[in-house]
Amino acid sequence: MHYGMYISATGAMTSMYRQDVFTNNLANTGTPGFKPVTPFTRQRDDVRSEDGLWHMASNAMLERLGGGAHLNQNHVAFKQGPIDTTGNPLDLAINGDGFFVVRAGGGAEGEELRFSRDGRLTRDRESRLVRVTDGLPVLDEMGREIRLPNEGDVVIDGDGAIRSGGRLIARLQIVDVPDRSRLTPAGETLLKPTANALTNAAPASGRVVQNAVEGSAATEISALMELTGASRAAQSNLGMLSYYDRMMDRAINTFGRVA
Question: N or C end: fewer C-beta atoms under 10 angstroms in the chain?
Answer without folding.
Answer: C
